[in-house]
Amino acid sequence: MEIVYNKKRINREILHLMVPIVMENTLQLVAGVALSAMVGRLLTDDIAAQGISNIVYRIFFVLFRGLAIGATVIVATCYGKRQIDKCKRTLEQAYLVAIPILIVAISVLSLFPVQILSMFTDDRNLVYHAAEYTRVLVWALPFMAVISFNTAAMNGQGNTKTPMFIAMALNVVNISAGYVLIFGVGPVGGFGIMGAAYATVISQFSGAILGVCAIYRKKGCFGKISHGKPFISLDVAEIKNFFSIGLPAAMEFMFWQLSAILMSMVLLSYGNNYYAAYQLGIQAEMLTDMPAQGFVVAATTLAARAIGQRDSALYKIYYSQIRKMALVTGIVSATLLFAIPRQLMMVLTNNPELQEIGAGYVFLMGFAMIPQAMSRVYSGFIRSSGGKRVPMYISFAGIWMVRVPLVVLFGWVLGLDINFIWMAIIVDHIVRIASSIIYTKRKNIYNYVDSLEEGGAEVA
User: What's the whole-model pTM score?
Assistant: First the structure.
């Protein structure tokens, strides 16, 4: 007999998981926006230099973020089965996997930043400033990786409050250090654009230390739990499982980030002002889109937990209620972008030209908010329900078969107005949500747990 769950209670459970995630992401974004706003008071070339440096940084950020999703799915599934020792083992294997990646990343970005950044622009002055920024920013990568995996492990257990509190502390450090290091205070002179890089490293270090302490202290998430194996021992089976879920998720994010490189090259061909306005516009867009960010973790974690428990009724009500919440959130976000695009840009820069260009981007992105929010829900359920690579394929189709060709066509081939570039992004989001809906209908994702009970599928 199938259990009937109370929808109000389920909604509270979803919100209990989501709200701290949204708050955590919002706090991190606020800190990023605060730094962007500080840099936005500097020269246009400083804004552009930070922008192209951040593209390279985000390549590794999305790599670790994707791998962290693998950790979240495994931890949530093990947690649903009450195998807490395996949760701890998964986190520790994630740490070990990150080491060789970080060695390569730090070495390459420290030694060859000019050669890498020259791919984006032939403006030697801009490349020089961006290279100096990158040589400092690269040292934030190890701490960012640790934060990503710590957060993934805690989210997988349903502990979203601790990452939120860590984000609060991290952001206080980021904003205060950023202000002092960018502008200076009293007799202490500021470092300008380089101050933002120093502040990022300091804040990421603080967040990583706080996360490790929260997890491994005696009363922490894994403090007293033992799996009986040395910390630095590799578990091939565990790493294979980790990569089977995390690597496709990382590739999904990587497709977007690599497309951002090409986007940057096209936008820089319009001029540094257009590129700088785009970077600030992304920050403004993310301010309103932040509530939807929680749906990725909520859908992934709760779906995996219900699958681990083999609870079909719970899985179905999660599926139904999270989709409804995502729809409402997308509508609210779209409304804000349509209503106050100029005001959002004014928060980020006092440059009228950048405000004007950025406001056009922000307004048009309002059309992408609902597809974007819903896509996150579908991706979470598809990934947890056996379709490990499907979100990656959908992302590839939308970005590299739609967005990139249209951007190149509109920007480089036809030389159309910048608004056509923004519209290419919207078409990408529409294609992705349509693909997700078609897949979930064809594979009957809604009844996935029922198929497990019948022996017709395997747990991801």
Answer: 0.75
**Torsional sign, CA 241, 247, 250, 255:** negative
What is the DSSP secondary-structure string of 132-183? Answer: HHHHHHGGGHHHHHHHHHHHHHHHHTT--HHHHHHHHHHHHHHHHHHHHHHH
- Residues paired with 105 in a beta bridge: none
Ranges 88-92, 283-287, 436-440: which has the least confidence: 283-287
For residues 190, 192, 193, 197, the Cα torsion angle rounded to the nearest 10 degrees is 0
Let me know the angle formed at the C-alpha of 281 by 424 and 255, rounded to the nearest 5 degrees: 50
Tokens linked to 357: 């260009």
Sign of the torsion angle spanned by Cα atoms 424, 430, 432, 438: negative
Spatial distance between the Cα atoms of 47 and 273, rounded to a whole number of angstroms: 9
Q: What is the CA radius of gyration of the chain?
A: 22
CA pair distance 444, 18, nearest whole angstrom: 25
312-339 and 369-384 helices, crossing angle to 10°: 160
What is the Cα–Cα distance from 379 to 287, expressed in whole angstroms? 22
pLDDT per residue over 181-212, tens digit each? Answer: 888 887 767 787 788 889 999 999 999 999 99
